[in-house]
Specification:
Elements (H helix, E strand, L loop, with lengths): L9 H14 L3 H6 L13 H4 L9 H34 L7 H31 L10 H8 L4 H23 L7 H30 L3 H36 L6 H24 L2 H8 L4 H11 L5
Length: 311
């Protein structure tokens, strides 16, 4: 008979609370501070937007492409934080009558995710005020959240950790060192990173706790769920990258050859796959945690599913 193991590391949850209190920020007072976006500057760095792979674009066109992708980048985070907040509330139930330190940490986690959603909704309105009409963000947050939450908790927590880790990677390696980004946009992701760094710690703990409860058969099914979630994310990226590329082609102010237009669409998709899938699944910490839970055969299944996306 399989016996569930509910291991709680109170000290690690307490540390998350300590850091959460220390880095706590307010959208208006600490982030926006009465500013708007500087549309004379990029939003996303080239390492994320991949616009440097389009040599036929002018500097202004590359900047505009980075702003489109940056707008979607913020909207995607608002989207995923809808299901992340709901899942964290759900898993906190196991601590309701147990470790109250863990419960407080997860409640703070959820509160911060709700704040992030509000911040990203505000960014969308601000971006819309300074960019040409025609941009559309197609995925519906509630519909996506409902679909994701239909998967196993193990799979959702795995996807969540992946997202939290690539958030940190993008900020440290691409956004922070780029001096050419809009100051407000850069500050948004500085503050986002400060709180997400603690979320990743809790995601990992909760994923490992969930893993300890599963039988081998349940875990094998959960691996299939995780593969399915990654495929669903890619489906969203295919649709949104095409919409964003088409918006760029419409609003750029000049005509492009069919070959150049196709290159723009392909580059947007490649950039989005890098941003939201590849950079996360290649993260060393994610692979270490995942590898500690799955069999070699399950790892091969995941690798085979990811292979078409690893351009």
């Amino acid at each position: 008979m399989h016996v569930s193991q509910h291991v709680v590391d109170t000290n690690r949850y307490a540390k998350c609370i300590e850091v959460s209190k220390r880095v706590r920020w307010d959208i208006d007072k600490d982030v926006v501070r009465g500013r708007g976006f500087d549309f004379g500057k990029k939003f996303l760095p080239d390492g994320l937007s991949k616009v440097d792979e389009l040599p036929f674009l002018t500097p202004g066109e590359k900047r505009f492409a980075s702003q489109i992708q940056g707008r979607t980048y913020a909207n995607i985070f608002g989207l995923v934080e809808r299901f992340i907040g709901a899942k964290v509330l759900e898993v906190s139930r196991e601590h309701w009558l147990g470790d109250q330190v863990a419960l407080e940490a997860l409640v703070r986690f959820t509160d911060e995710e709700l704040k992030h959603q509000e911040m990203f909704r505000r960014l969308e309105r601000m971006a819309g005020e300074g960019m040409p009409a025609g941009y559309r963000f197609l995925p519906q947050p509630n519909d996506v959240a409902q679909a994701v939450l239909g998967a196993s908790t193990w799979a959702v927590l795995g996807l969540t950790l992946d997202i939290e880790l690539f958030t940190q990677l993008h900020y440290r390696e691409s956004i922070l060192p780029d001096a050419e980004l809009s100051e407000l946009w850069k500050d948004v992701f500085l503050h986002h990173w400060k709180e997400e760094s603690q979320h990743a710690v809790m995601d990992e703990m909760e994923w490992l706790r969930e893993n300890a409860k599963l039988t081998p058969a349940q875990r094998d099914a959960a691996v299939d769920d995780l593969i399915g979630l990654v495929g669903a994310v890619d489906g969203i990226l295919q649709v949104q990258s095409k919409a964003d590329a088409d918006y760029f082609l419409l609003a750029a102010g000049r005509s492009f050859s069919s070959a150049d237009a196709e290159a723009i669409r392909a580059t947007f998709l490649r950039a989005y796959r890098w941003q939201y899938i590849v950079s996360g699944v290649q993260d060393a910490r994610f692979n270490e945690v995942l590898g500690s839970m799955i069999t070699p055969a399950q790892g091969e299944r995941i690798g085979a599913a990811l292979a078409p996306l690893l351009d």
